[in-house]
Structures are given as C-alpha cells and as structure tokens.
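Hi R.,

As promised on Friday, here is the backbone we talked about, encoded as structure tokens. Could you run it through your design pipeline when you get a chance and send me back a sequence?
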C-alpha cells in the first residue's frame, strides 16, 4: 500500500488557488456538515478551540472521505504535539506564532525523521495504516504540508528569512494578532494592518512562496486570492453558525407582533 498523494501540498506547489474554511466546533458530526461543501482545505484548530487528540482524529476521519484536505493548527510549536498529530495522520500542520528563523527550523525539524529532524519513529500508526503503507518514511516529508503563521510586526519583518527555511510550504499571516500587536485589537481588517501584511506577502509571492490567511469576509477573501494569495480561509464554522442563527431569529422576531430584541 502506498502513501496517499496530498492534494493540498501539490496545489500549493503549482500555485493553484485554495479556498478554505476554519473548523473550531471540535466535533466530527459538525465537521461532516461542512466537509461535503467542497472547500479545498479545512483548518482544524487546536490553538483556540476545545479540540483534543481524539476530537481531531474524528475530524480527520471525516475529511479523509472527501477531497478537502484537513490541516491541523497545533497548539504550539511543540515537537511532542507534532509527533502525535502526524502519527494520527494529519496531512499538514499550521504552526502558530512563529517569531524567528530558529523557531521555523524547529517546526520543520519536528515534522522530519532523523537525520533531518527529531520526529520519533513508530511504525504501526494511523498515518501508516497501522504498518501497511510501505513507502511512508520515504515520502511523508514531501507530502506533509508545513505552514508557518506570522502574528506580530517583528515576525512580518522577518517573513522572507523565515520563508527561506527548507521544508516550509507556505506562510500564513494572522491578521487578528498582527492587529493586536499594532494596537488595533479586534480590528483584523483595519487598512493599516493590511498595509503591513500586503508588502510582505508580495515579496514572498515574488520568491514563489505560497501565502495565506483567514478573513471572515468573503469579498475580501476573493480580493486577496485575486491579488496572488494562494490559500485563504474565507470563514469560520462558529461564525457561520452564530451569524445564521442571529439572522434567523431577527427575521422571525421582526414579523411577530409585540416581539422586541
């Protein structure tokens, strides 16, 4: 049995636009509701959600039955967490709050077996279909997507050097934290935030490095993709549910006599 081809890694290498969805509800049933929509990728978040390894496993199993590639955002740049997620079969990882070239190298090393990294070896894991995938160790490093998230002004200033680290498949800009670092907490779409991100992103694009982000604004997501961003998440499952339920209640209340908000 051979290791499955990673559609997302291949798409980034070719520069194909990838539209994604952020997954924070931490439940495999909820994931299945959106898994068949047809997004190119989905980000299963462990940093800002109640996800644990078992809930992530359930969601990986859901997305494995579709053409949507599930990328997991690990809680932190921690080699033990990375090892466990890769053994679970995560097709790719997003590392939060990368601040330096050294941290970028550590992230990549956690995804690689010796002598190129520090990932521990275990043969009978879900990732190897419990020992049945015969070419896993030869191909997994080429197939696994490694994305690094830049979330401060200092990190953005080092974007080119961080992107030059061997083994990085894409750079993800985190506008919410960048905005907070700029004194604009809660304003991820502020023009000043994007005046910082866009020039850095353009430099990376010129070098052939795929860049991505998350914005809960479909028009702006499309704008960024048209500008040259390769992978953009255009919404979050929690936000979609909150907005839809708010809108539904408002529509009914507005038509019922005597109802007020």
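Update: got your reply. Pasting your designed sequence below so it's all in one thread:
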């Amino acid at each position: 049995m051979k290791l499955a081809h990673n559609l997302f890694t291949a798409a980034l290498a070719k520069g194909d636009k990838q539209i994604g969805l952020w997954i924070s509800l931490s439940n495999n049933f909820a994931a299945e509701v959106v898994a068949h929509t047809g997004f190119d990728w989905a980000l299963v978040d462990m940093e800002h959600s109640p996800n644990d390894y078992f809930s992530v496993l359930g969601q990986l199993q859901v997305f494995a039955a579709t053409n949507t590639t599930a990328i997991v955002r690990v809680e932190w740049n921690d080699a033990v967490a990375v090892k466990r997620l890769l053994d679970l079969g995560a097709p790719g990882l997003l590392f939060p709050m990368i601040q330096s070239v050294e941290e970028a190298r550590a992230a990549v090393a956690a995804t690689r077996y010796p002598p190129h990294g520090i990932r521990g070896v275990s043969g009978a894991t879900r990732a190897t279909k419990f020992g049945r995938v015969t070419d896993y160790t030869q191909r997994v490093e080429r197939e696994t997507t490694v994305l690094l998230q830049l979330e401060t002004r200092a990190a953005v200033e080092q974007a080119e050097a961080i992107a030059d680290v061997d083994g990085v498949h894409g750079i993800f800009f985190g506008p919410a934290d960048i905005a907070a670092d700029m004194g604009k907490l809660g304003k991820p779409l502020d023009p000043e935030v994007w005046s910082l991100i866009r020039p850095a992103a353009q430099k990376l694009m010129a070098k052939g490095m795929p860049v991505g982000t998350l914005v809960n604004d479909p028009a702006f997501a499309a704008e960024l993709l048209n500008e040259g961003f390769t992978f953009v998440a255009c919404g979050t499952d929690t936000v979609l549910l909150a907005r839809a339920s708010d809108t539904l209640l408002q529509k009914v209340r507005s038509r019922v006599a005597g109802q007020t908000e």
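One thing I noticed while checking it: The chain has twelve helices and eight strands.

Thanks again,
M.
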